Amino acid sequence: MRKTITFAVLLWLSFAILTAAPATAQKLEAQPGYVPIHELGIFPRERLSAEINLSGPLLRMIAGASRSDDPEFAALLSGLQAIQVQVFPLAATDEAAVKGRIGNAVRWLEDRGWAPTVRVREGGEEVYIYLKEAEGRIVGMTLMSLTSGDEAAVINIVGRIDPEQLSRLGEELDLPHLDRVPDKDNKDNQDKKP
Amino acid sequence: MSRFDDTLRCEEVLDLLEPYLDGDLPPDEAAQAAAHLERCPACAGELDLATAVQRELRALPQHDCPPEVLQKIHSAGAGEVVPFRSRLAGWPVRLSLAAAVLALTVGGAAFFLQQRQDGPSPAEIAQATEEARFALAYIGKVSRKASLGLRDDVLRRRLVAPATRSLAQTLEDIPGNEVPVRDTAGQP
Questions:
Q1: Which residues contact B116 (CB under 8 A, 6 or more apart)?
Q2: pTM score of the predicted model
Q3: By the 8 A CB rule, do A31 and A157 touch?
Q4: Which of A3, A19, A62, A160 is least enclosed by beta carbons within 10 angstroms?
Q5: Closest Cα of chain A to B175: distance in Å?
């Protein structure tokens, strides 16, 4: 009997190994904190100035590579499953149309249980930060911003999030890293989903 | 009292056919067996069959075991009696091992191929690190802009309270951890 159970477990393991990778790939879209920003069509993709799509395995590699140099950054990334960023330049653009699409995205989020954390509409600035909770934990954050005459952006972070840590790291990283906008035209670095 | 008498049953005679045939029975028992066989056609038939089998077996060619094999058996066994195991007895074990080897081989190959196909290079990881830092920096910049127009109580209710609940839930899930976490939601 014990041998039969061992045999069954081994067969199940072999099946699990073979199916693990596709299963992992399917999981991201099912995460409560995931927002399909490509499907929402907030910005035309061909005119984005920056686009980032980082998913779980790559984020864990980054976390592993950063552990000794920047433990807090590594700790934050190790809990994440995806980072999606779209930055759209507003120069020579119909800003009203962009604001309208951001408004549609806000309604999409609220219809799906995202909680507004920050909503600022002041002068030419619009900022929306929404958090998604599941089972008492924050499992997603979506930020949308628009600075009139400058640019608009949408950022979706999927995974276990500590907003305080995120904010602290964001402040520390502000000046040195905003100068290095990722090259949107480098297709080798787009849509990384290992 | 002898085992063979007038009330001797056929089953008892059949049990003694082999020693009778080999001449191993004492003379008196052999005589009684012979008397029973003379008057019992069924047992006599069994005796004829046993005689024929013995004759055929003895007619088979005899092969001597090679001396070197005998030597190995003597030196390895040293008189130890090893119980014989049926070939079929271990089939689940062999099948399990085969399944394990198959799983490791196929799984390992799939993992290797996947790593080769999708695994990022160090340069790609460095680029991705910059992208992740860029995303966080962007959040920091926008949050700072936004917080200029927010009151402290709004920040506490909207940002600190959800974070506290999330932290409390995480701490509760740690086995043996009963550290109370105060919910600061709504506090001035």
A1: none
A2: 0.53
A3: no
A4: A19
A5: 17
